[in-house]
Amino acid sequence: MAVKKPVSALPPLTIGIDGNEANVTRRVGSNVYAYYLIKSLYELNSSHTYIIYLKEPPQADMPVPHEKWQYRIMPFSRLWTQIRLPLELWMTSTRPDVFLSPGHYVSPLLPVPVVISIMDLAYLTHPQFFRQSDLIQLRTWTQRSINKSQHILTISEYSKNDIPKYYQYDPNNITVTYPGINHNKYFFPQNDGDINRVKKQFGISKNYLLYVGTLQPRKNLDGLVKAFANLKMNDYQLVIAGKKGWMYESLFQLVEKMGLQKQVIFTDFVLDEDLPPLMAGARALVLVSFYEGFGIPVAEALAVGTPAVVSGVSSLPEVLGGAGFKVDPNNIKSITQGLKKIINLNQTEYSQLMDKGIAHVKLFQWDRVAVQTNKVLEKIFLLNNKDL
Asked: Model's pTM, two decimal places?
């Protein structure tokens, strides 16, 4: 009788990570995702060794190196991803067992199994919101990266369904890892003194609806302002919090044309410590974008006990989880009705939405993202080493 070969336990791996998305000073979008993913992997009690490959020395808030967490600094002005990194991996004696890129791009020349992260496919579904040069790069480099990767991480079920529509890729090799939020900052209840402080700081003197994000066309802020004007509620203000992006001039012109200068408040960029109380003081967080890869501000608002009004498109319904109302971003009347609903709720109905949101955001934990990501990396190693 043949004796079955014993199955070995998974050995400690060497995991390579492209850390450049995380290694920046002012993080937005994919930078935030990459930073907190790397930070959470660092905090895992893992037997694996991680090598973080960088163009420049790590920022001060990047994890402190130790025996199992190493930085490999490789200065190179151009073609770092496509040439410099593959060259390093081909020539090193400590080649990773598997490699993770928390972004769309990896080189097809990498000599190891690869896992990539794709936030969304907005550049394909809504190309009008991108510069032509960026579109060309996103389309060509993402295609090459997908061809190279053995597994894809993405941040919503919506994106998981989108990827096989546009690329020949097996959906069984796509894993959804919802981004986390900082639960140490975004929690319920927030301090009343902090709420009053930020309201005074930004000149908010009435009840208010809040938008948080960059000022850009994709966010549909013109539509939001028009819907807000339709409310004709002098006891409410609309607070638009975020830095200027591009093509925002028409928004300021619209507010002036409608005579809403006293009712619409532009805060510009808001510091991290001011955002939780600013969200907590609002009647609702409003995000009626034409497209969102995820919509972190919605999750953060729910965490501080503030329901939301969001577009019923892309990934936003997943983030909302029923703790508010969905609207049609292409229909001003629909947006207006959504705002009216959230304003006119009685206290019992409003409290029910608050409770639903606070429970729902427990899904969004960075330590969970790290565990899921680690499992995928281990799985890809085992698929490439079936004799273990």
From this structure: 0.89
